[in-house]
Amino acid sequence: MSRFEIQNPYLLFLGDAPDQLAAKTANGVKVWRPDWCLGQFRFPACKADLGLPDMTIEEAAAAGVKTVILGVANRGGFIPDAWIVELVKALNLGMDIASGLHTRITTIPALKEAAEKNGRKLFDVRHPTRDYPVASGVPRTGKRLLTVGTDVSVGKMFTTLAIEKEMRDRGMNADFRATGQTGIFIAGSGLSVDAVIADFISGSIEWLAPENSEDHWDLIEGQGSLYNVSYSGVTLGLIHGAQSDALVMCHEIGRPHMRGLPDYEVPAIPTAMDTILHMAKMVNSDVKFVGVSLNTSNVTAEEAEAFKKKTAKETGLPVVDPLKDGVAPIVDNIVASY
């Protein structure tokens, strides 16, 4: 298998999730691919609810579900026996299983045996299924956009998906390229770049977004941040592997410090853009920023509007909150620039 290729429609397996946050991954799939999600499976103790029809495993099979998605954080880093009983049942009824958990479902004997017996697939999307080449840096055809951030968890995946939707609504030739487990479930394919051995990160992205037709856009989901010392290595690998034509800067207004790093300040947007652009020009001298995407959820509408105007003046770029404003101005700029 060259990359994860997960068949839909899905049953979102919530198990005994203790709260709504534990189902964050499953909720992302439901929001962005509602037509792929036929139902949810919940034990009586489950405290999460995605608003989908509750289904038993048997009902899911009868409805035509192709893959059961484990889109929930489990307790203690292991899969309970009660989950395994239901997942074996799913395999016996002809469904595949895809997991975003740290626990590898491919190492659970009962699941492995049932999958082999029924000719079904088990996907551990956090873990690579193949070896990747060392990056070559050789220019390739097609166009690529990468979302980058002043910090981690500032809306890079959401922004990338919003741009894909806007482009496709306009009839443009564009594909979202997932680099994390939630994105893989949403796209149905991709790779979890933070699990790739460091020497091969850039090469894995060259492979994920290879040569394509001149009118095609690969929209690559960003990870980490050059300014977050915990995850900057992954980000630099993505920047060099993407060989981007376009970049979109993502930022959360009002964040007091780098996430998980109270001694580090969040950089100013223009400062971060200068640093990132310097790194990106190593592999594509024509790369440029085409927009700024803001998460304004922690500030008032007035504060958000003032920040947008200030940032637009500083950068000369369209500045939006993709959730509240949409990303049409950014796509307009892309269309006008390429």
Average per-residue pLDDT, rounded, comes to 95
Number of helices: 11
CATH superfamily of the largest domain: P-loop containing nucleotide triphosphate hydrolases
Spatial order of strands in the largest sheet: 8-10-7-11-12-13
How many β-strands, per DSSP?
A: 13
Structural class: alpha/beta
Run of helices and strands: EEHEHEHEHEEHEHEHEHEHEHEH
What is the C-level CATH assignment of the largest domain? Answer: Alpha Beta
Radius of gyration: 20 Å
Can you tell me the residue ranges where pLDDT is under 50 for at least 5 consecutive residues?
none
> Which fold name is given in CATH as the topology of the largest domain?
Rossmann fold
Beta-strand content bin:
15-25%
What is the helix content?
A: 25-40%
What is the straight-line distance between the termini?
34 Å
Structure commentary:
The model has no long low-confidence stretch (mean pLDDT 95). α7 (201-208) packs across α8 (232-242). With 338 residues, this protein is an alpha/beta fold. It has helices spanning 24-32, 57-63, 81-92, 109-118, 156-169, 181-187, 201-208, 232-242, 269-280, 301-315, 328-337, and strands at residues 4-5, 10-15, 37-42, 67-70, 96-99, 122-124, 143-149, 173-177, 189-190, 216-220, 246-252, 288-295, 319-320. The protein is built from 11 helices and 13 strands. α3 (81-92) links the parallel β4 (67-70) and β5. A 6-stranded parallel beta sheet has the order 8-10-7-11-12-13, with helices on both faces. Strands 3-2-4-5-6 form a 5-stranded parallel beta sheet, with helices on both faces. It has a two-stranded antiparallel sheet with strand order 1-9. The protein has 2 domains: 4-124, NAD(P)-binding Rossmann-like Domain (Rossmann fold, 3-Layer(aba) Sandwich), CATH 3.40.50.720; 143-337, P-loop containing nucleotide triphosphate hydrolases (Rossmann fold, 3-Layer(aba) Sandwich). Helix content is 34%, strand content 18%. Residues 134-331 form the D-glutamate N-acetyltransferase-like C-terminal domain. Residues 50-128 form the D-glutamate N-acetyltransferase-like N-terminal domain. Pfam families: DUF1611 (PF07755), DUF1611_N (PF17396).
